[in-house]
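Checklist before submission:
- one chain only
- standard amino acids only
- sequence pasted in full

Submission:
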Amino acid sequence: MTPVQEKLFFVLADDDPRLHEYTVSILKESGMLEKHESFYDPVSFLAFLKESEDEPDVILLDVHFEGSGLSGVDILPFIREEYPYIPVILLTGMDAEATDEAQSDVFTYFIPKPVTEVHLTSMLHFYLGKSKKSAETINTLIDEMEEVKGYHHLLEQEVEELQDEQRRLEQLTREDKTGSSTKGFEKVSEILESLLTKSQPMPSFVADLEKVYSTQFKLFKKVIETLIRFDVQDSATPGMNIHKVKGTQNVFSARLSRKVRLFYYNSAKSVRKKLIRLDIYHDTKGMDKWIKNNYHSYAETDDQYENSIKRS
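Returned file contents:
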């Protein structure tokens, strides 16, 4: 018996009206299309994602929007804020820069232009099957995360207690506040280190984390929650946009929130990922300089890379 074709809700975002008509006709003919929405610029497309009550099943997204100032790769992080696991298929000329930048996203795929009927339907079937398997893997990881839920709850309680302490400290002098706040951070830091099984906080990272704790407490709570999820999952967490830092060896950046980037060191020689810096100011040049100048403070010995640092 032939399996019944699953019908899906497609969203198309491309600046070429002819491609919309052509793609929709192919989807209807293949029996895959239940309904669709079409957008011709990235701004109206993103507005729809925020306001829509119906969750799309698939997003077909152009890489290059003429005259918009935004590309499909640029808006991918905003899509992931609303829908972390929806398959996004980029329609592109397969230029290396665009594809390399989006490669780290687990649920992002590529179909080259010009799109043909046979290629589109076959690639959609393949990618949607692959996406389903990835979603099942993510669900398994989520189940595994339940095993540390008790510890996570303990950490949340500690953070709430510290938040109350933070309000009380506002009534004290600056000198007293600094001393008590440091003790409070040390308590949270100890609990966090006991929860991290695959990551090792370095002193430079702890110093950055303490700055966030003392200046932006709400952001600090979000960073803690995201760090625990990042530590538990073996693969890249959707929406984190993990990239290798250019000009470095085994150093990567991960997006913990709109404001915060995590820099970490991960190599075959390391048993655990080394958390080395937090950046809340988008100080790319400063971070790049620090990572290069402080290589010995976090990295495993690598003579070849050490020589390249000296030469540069």
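Reviewer check: The first helix runs from residue 17 to 30.
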